[in-house]
Amino acid sequence: MIHKKIKNGKRPHIPLTFIVTVIAFFVLVITMFVVTLVSYLMIHLGVFHYVPSGRASFIFIMVEFSLSSIVVGTCVSLVVGRISLRPISRMITALDCLAAGDYKTRIYFGESTVGKELAKSFNMLAQELDNTEMLRSDFVNNFSHEFKTPIVSIYGFSRLLLKGKVDENTAREYLSIIEQESGRLSKMATNVLNLTKIENQTILTDQAEYNVSEQIRRSILLLEKKWSAKNIQLSCEFNEHKITANEELLKQVWINILDNAIKFSPENGKITVAIYDRSEAISVVIKNNGPKISEHDMLRIFNKFYQGDASHGGEGTGVGLSIVKKIVDLHGGKVWVESTDKETAFWVSLPVSA
Fold it and tell me: Is residue 102 in some structural domain?
């Protein structure tokens, strides 16, 4: 049998069955030693007389030895068991706390290798559950706010139109607002559905070679109405680049990052898109001169449903960048953000052949 090398200098885990066997062996040895010692002392002190040829004496000693073994073995087992099973008891208590919804529970089992590994695994589980609960709470709050705003607008302007006391121009204005808010609701619902679909996808399919530079140009044109409305100067600094990937999925990446850049760019701002050839990969960077992203937000910006403090002033549900992260991961790439007082840059690195 070929043994696998131990990575990072870690010692192999000791099987639990071996540990239990060793404990049982020591309990047995201690029991035998104590019973033998007691029997010897009783004979030596004349409590009872041992006659080697006496059958009754032999039976008596065996019975005494057996009863003593049971009593001593039980006591030793209780002591050893209580000490050895204490971590398991603490683990059960901690798991009960998690089941009750207390995700702040943490445990510590001392400096032993097994204890540290067990505590580390449990604490990581508790932290993930705590993060999930926070995201769930944020999701409910964000969606309640983001869905309520357009629904209230649609309801309010619809009631005004039904009363029939508005002129034609005002009616058109109200209908335009209703159309915009309906589109906003549709976009939010679509993003959530897309995220759910992508999260369930583990294998990248429908890959083909295509011109990613042309795809980015088309994505920019699709959002022309948005960046033109803010009089944003949009600059493309790249040549033609081809990659093998899922074209439809990567289209969502560019649109979401560009839409985010437009959202946070000021009036008369500037957005720059560049592509760099990195041997076996390409790097796409989309920069805008919007407000600086805090360190706290940068650590969580790709989390599902996360919205930074600056994002609550505009529309959105914190889903777009989560979609970006998942799609890039599926392609074996990386996505990250860099932000200074002057500009914010979203980087996407993708292998030329996914």
Answer: no
Q: Is residue 186 located within the same domain as residue 282? A: no
Q: How many domains does the chain have?
A: 3
The backbone region for 41, taken as left when phi is positive above 0, alpha when psi lies in -120 to 50, beta otherwise, is: alpha
Q: How many angstroms separate the CA atoms of 310 and 104, rounded?
A: 28
Same domain, 223 and 344: yes
Residue 97 CB contacts under 8 Å (≥ 6 apart), including other chains: 105
Q: In 203-221, which positions are buried (b, 16+ CB within 10 angstroms) versus exposed (e)? A: eeeeeeeeebbebbeebbe
pLDDT attached to residue 216: 94
What residues make up the domain containing 17?
Answer: 10-84
pLDDT in tens, 35-68: 677 767 766 776 655 555 555 555 566 666 666 6
pLDDT tens for each residue of 223-256: 998 899 999 999 998 889 999 999 989 999 999 9
- Return the number of other C-beta atoms located less than 10 Å from residue 175's C-beta: 13
d(CA 219, CA 275): 15
Question: Do β-strands 334-339 and 344-351 pair in parallel, antiparallel, or remain unpaired?
Answer: antiparallel
**Are 241 and 180 within one domain?**
no
Distance CA 265, CA 257 (A): 12
Cβ atoms within 10 A of the Cβ of 47, count? 11
The pTM (predicted TM-score) of the whole model is 0.57
**Residues 317 and 334 occupy one common structural domain:** yes
